[in-house]
Amino acid sequence: MNGIFKVGGLGSGRRRRTGPRAGFTLIELMIVITIIFILVGIAAARYDRSVQRAKEATLKTDLQVMRQAIDNYTLDKEAAPQSLEDLVNPQAPYLREVPVDPMTRAKDWHLDFGDLVLSPDQTNNGIVDVHSNSPLPSSIDGTPYNTW
Question: Domain spans of the chain?
Answer without folding.
Answer: 26-147
